[in-house]
Amino acid sequence: MEYEIKRFSLWPLFRNTFLVSGILFLILFIFMGNFIMQMMNQSMADMGMGPTGVSGPLSFFTILSLAVSNAFFFSLFLTAAGAIYNFITHWTGGIKMELDYPYEEYDDGYEDDEEQVDEADFLSDENGETDKE
User: Fold this and answer.
1) What value does the mean pLDDT of the chain take?
2) Which string of DSSP letters, residue by residue, matches 84-120?
3) Looking at the domain assignment, is residue 77 inside a domain?
């Protein structure tokens, strides 16, 4: 089988990458949240703003906003890449792939060794009796 990827639909591409990358960035920033908050406090102290006690709900919303903004810009980048791909393949054609079904020619050897079973042998007749009893 030969397939060709001619174009990407941009809105589903953005929507799906935003969902997946949003979840992944949120998980990443939750696990690295303490380290991120320490870096933010240190950089604010280095700028002369004084140490801040960013903790509690503010730190959660900071981490959430970082995850959402990173997911948005990552999705925007992939959508722009999809638009460039669509623009290029308009003139040159898409990427052709040849896919084979891997089990098409696989011989397991069971067909030759066992007796062929007919389904009609196990079906009951009008009296509820089967042929194989």
Assistant:
1) 77
2) HHHHHHHHH--EEEE---TTTT---SHHHHSPPPPGG
3) yes
User: Tell me: the pLDDT tens digits for 15-35?
Assistant: 999 999 999 988 888 787 777
Instruction: Please name the residue ranges forming H helices in 1-133.
Output: 10-31, 33-46, 57-92, 110-113
Kindly state the DSSP code that residue 3 receives in the 8-state scheme. Answer: E
Q: Is residue 123 part of a domain?
A: no
- How many domains does the structure of the chain reveal? 1
Does some domain include residue 76?
Answer: yes
Q: Does residue 15 lie in a domain region?
A: yes
Range of 43's domain?
2-101
- What pLDDT, on a 0 to 100 scale, did the predictor assign at position 10? 92
Bridge partner residues of 37 (DSSP): none
